[in-house]
Design a protein that fits this description.
Length: about 70
């Protein structure tokens, strides 16, 4: 396997893991105060939604950067 492909797969793994960790942490933190899972998900949506969008942008930016290099 190409070393660039390995780096891209590793970046995808860590970005996905980061999004999952932020989702779980934010939802658990909000659940402690609201004691309602639906409310926790609703309040956390902007936070983990922004993290997910940023992770996707980082992934595509990194992929474009890797493909630009010789």
């Amino acid at each position: 396997m190409d070393p660039k492909e390995k780096r891209l797969r590793l970046m995808r793994f860590w970005l996905f893991g980061s999004v999952v960790i932020v989702f779980a942490a934010v939802t658990a933190y909000l659940y402690m105060f609201t004691l309602n899972i639906v409310s926790s998900l609703t309040l956390g949506l902007p936070i983990w939604g922004i993290v997910a969008v940023v992770a996707v942008l980082i992934f595509f930016g990194y992929r474009a950067w890797l493909r630009r290099q010789p």
